[in-house]
């Protein structure tokens, strides 16, 4: 069990009524709580959402507070401070004065700093400290006015040789307020990507997806991500730049196994973080299984840190990998799913 959940269980006597668990991990926490607690999950992680549903928990996969009333809220601290700020603002706009908000997180994940973000909303104190985690309690002083989702968007401009567009990114999305180096290295090669049915795996705020859509109005872009904030950001980026909605298919995924098949191309600046932890499962899985999602002669384009062994891994499954660029700590890699010759 996640150590943060263990700390919540230690103080489960403080939980009463209809409790909303926000960003909770996919473990057995709810099985160990009092049956009198009416629990609900709100998560933006599709893997956790699917795991909650599999355990028959009530779960919402969304960027917005569930449209229900709750007596208490337990927030598992997200990695992003601005995302926590957004979540707290959502909570404070939905709960009533003096209702309790609990915040739990790991010390190495910055729970002490996160606890300071509670202070503008009411009186708070440390309820428990164990398993290298802390649990804080706050009584909401007053209900605050809800801010629309649009108020949380950060925008920046992408300049291509023949066009430009604005990126719309929500809290917690990778590189929310600037173009990251890896994607910047990949963008000049997108004009070489085979047109048609294309997937952007780990779409983030939609930089790659939007670029590909602008390059060719005939491209159908499948934007894939585990994160609801990323998917919504990509949708907002397409809408803001007045790209035809027919060009975009949004899809929540737990990994490459959920991606569509029969693709002309699969493009990615693959993720390698799960919360505060480094996790290469999704990106390594992409290298191993991308070929099965491509048409014959379909293409895989990846940008990744140069120290990762992705070229060798891709070569195992495609037979050949071409390094298109190696600079600024990143490699742009290309592979093609050649049709197998008949024996």
TrEMBL record:
Domain annotation Methyltransferase small N-terminal: ranges: 5-156
Reactions catalysed according to its record: guanosine(1207) in 16S rRNA + S-adenosyl-L-methionine = N(2)-methylguanosine(1207) in 16S rRNA + S-adenosyl-L-homocysteine + H(+)
EC code: 2.1.1.172
Keywords: Cytoplasm, Methyltransferase, rRNA processing, S-adenosyl-L-methionine, Transferase
Listed GO CC annotations: cytoplasm
Chief place of localization: cytoplasm
Domain Methyltransferase small span(s) in chain numbering: 165-333
Subcellular location: Cytoplasm
Subunit comment: Monomer.
Annotated family: Belongs to the methyltransferase superfamily. RsmC family.
Role description: Specifically methylates the guanine in position 1207 of 16S rRNA in the 30S particle.
Protein name, per record: Ribosomal RNA small subunit methyltransferase C
């Amino acid at each position: 069990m996640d150590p943060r959940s263990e700390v919540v269980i230690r103080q489960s006597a403080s939980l009463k009524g209809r409790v909303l668990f926000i960003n909770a991990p996919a473990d057995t926490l709810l099985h160990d709580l009092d049956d009198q607690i009416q629990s609900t999950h709100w998560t933006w992680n599709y893997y956790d959402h699917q795991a909650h549903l599999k355990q028959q928990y009530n779960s919402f996969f969304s960027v917005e507070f569930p449209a229900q009333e709750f007596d208490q809220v337990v927030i598992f601290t997200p990695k992003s401070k601005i995302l926590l700020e957004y979540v707290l603002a959502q909570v404070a706009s939905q709960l009533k004065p003096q209702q309790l908000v609990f915040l739990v997180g790991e010390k190495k994940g910055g729970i002490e700093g996160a606890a300071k973000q509670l202070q503008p909303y009411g009186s708070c104190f440390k309820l428990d400290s164990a398993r290298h985690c802390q649990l804080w309690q706050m009584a909401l002083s007053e209900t605050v006015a809800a801010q629309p989702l649009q108020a949380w968007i950060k925008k920046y401009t992408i300049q291509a040789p023949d066009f430009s567009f604005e990126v719309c990114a929500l809290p917690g999305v990778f590189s929310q307020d600037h173009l990251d180096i890896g994607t910047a290295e990949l963008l000049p090669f997108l004009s070489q990507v085979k047109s048609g049915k294309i997937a952007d795996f780990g779409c983030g705020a939609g930089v790659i997806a939007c670029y590909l859509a602008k390059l060719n109005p005939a491209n159908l872009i499948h934007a894939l991500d585990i994160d609801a904030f990323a998917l919504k950001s990509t949708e907002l980026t397409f809408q803001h730049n007045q790209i035809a909605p027919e060009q975009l298919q949004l899809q929540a995924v737990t990994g490459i196994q959920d991606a569509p098949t029969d693709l002309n191309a699969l493009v990615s600046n693959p993720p390698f973080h799960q919360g505060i932890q480094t996790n290469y499962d999704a990106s390594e899985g992409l290298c191993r299984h991308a070929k099965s999602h491509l048409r014959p002669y379909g293409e895989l384009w990846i940008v990744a840190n140069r120290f990762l062994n992705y070229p060798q891994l891709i070569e195992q499954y495609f037979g050949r990998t071409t390094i298109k660029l190696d600079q600024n700590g990143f490699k742009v890699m290309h592979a093609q799913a050649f049709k197998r010759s008949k024996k």
